[in-house]
Amino acid sequence: MNLALWLERVAKTAPERPALFHGRDLDATYGDFHARVMAVAGWLAAQGVKPGDRVGLFMKNLPHHLVAQYGVWAMGAAVVPINAKLHPREAAWILENAAATRCFTSPGLHEGLRAVSDIPCHDVTCTDYTAALAHAPLAAIAPRAPEDLAWLFYTSGTTGRPKGVTITNRMLHAMALSYFADVDEVTGDDTALYAAPMSHGAGIYNLMHVLKGARHVTPVSGGFDEAEIFDLARHHRRIHMFAAPTMVKRMTEVAKDTGETGEGLRTIVYGGGPMYVADIVEAVDHFGPIFVQIYGQGECPMCITALSRAEVADRSHPDWQTRLASVGRAQSVVEIAIGDEDGTPLPPGEVGEIMVRGDAIMPGYWQNPEATAKTVVDGWLMTGDMGTLDAGGYLTLKDRSKDVIISGGTNIYPREVEEALLLHPSVREVSVIGRPHPEWGEDVVAFVVSNGPLDAAALDAHCLDHIARFKRPKTYLPIEALPKNNYGKVLKTALRTLLEDTK
Known about the structure:
- The chain has a domain of 98 residues: GMP Synthetase, Chain A, domain 3 (2-Layer Sandwich), CATH 3.30.300.
- The chain is built from 18 helices and 25 strands.
- The strands form six sheets. It has a nine-stranded mixed β-sheet. Strands 16, 17, 18, 19 and 20 form a five-stranded antiparallel β-sheet that branches. It has a four-stranded parallel β-sheet with strand order 4-3-5-6, sandwiched between helices.
- α2 packs across α3 and α4 crosses α5.
């Protein structure tokens, strides 16, 4: 089924319902939204775009993003979302690899992309796009099969060229319906706020809000601004947003400094990186029970596990801290297991690779059978993440398999060390990596963003009070800010290079 049918159904039953906002300003009702989508679809077809083709979206967060996205879907093509923070050459490589026929852009990105790519691109403020909105509408939404490509998502590519994840209609249907079952309810009175890149999880979370006829708000800033988020939440009310853990931490810090209460925020779904227990406890203490955690990957978008708002806020259960350190239990459309090096399932409590299967996992990487064969094995998605499952089905992440430190033949999981260090009041942020050691294989190094001068002796004593002696860092290195990619994930590859440079 074509995902654009969800929009069409709301437009038919509630055409006057407010749909798209830019900041506080209404940009389109659902009737307007659908009409624009069908016009863009008709225009794309007239330009020679065919069902099954790929069309890029290299755009900042704007109402036009959703119009273009649904316009591409309505005429049967697939979207290639590209983060607006990428360099134009990186965007051009993605478009070329995807064999995209066209690309929609936004001001500030259009010129750079045109200078490095021959693929026709259309700024949403240009005459082409104006002509698209005025074009005769597509007669009917194109039929699509469950296995047809809908969203060609390119991984962040921190270790080489990104791979294109083929996300099908079936996967996105499964994700959306699993959201209602396992993450949160949505009604027509709700508002989706897009403060994280719409090229990623924040963007595909539009689906369930379109299905329910909710409002969609893109900030005027085009991205993440704490003061703007608090203002829009007070104005629009019943705000849902997706946020990386670093965004939650920043929102909490700003709110405490400025007296903001988070009025109007209904649900913040967080994921995309490690959320440290101390940070989410502080966030819940300030904002209340508005947080839900999800764990997913591009290869299984947004729907591997979920930890409910009740569990995130619970402080009465005897195991609440352990549960809060987990990423929750399997969502309804997948099953998960922990496997050894051969993919053989391990018993509860054992550490191994997290494996996932179900309707939400990808069929494979775009034109990359070798990578597909390594990642999808006997129907299981091999995530590359290490973790444990307890007897209750709660999944706790350890680290990416490549980030595990092996010292003296014993595995040390950086996240456990980071969690301990973050309990010290002087530590603002920390990232732990391994360093080659001639005797032990590796030893532990902590890069620390601290409040004031770094006191290694105090941190060492603190670690000895919280974790086993062999796990404590042998070296503490001060750093002004941790290197992160466009999505807020710490780049441990950059830290390893920095460590090499300091020898």
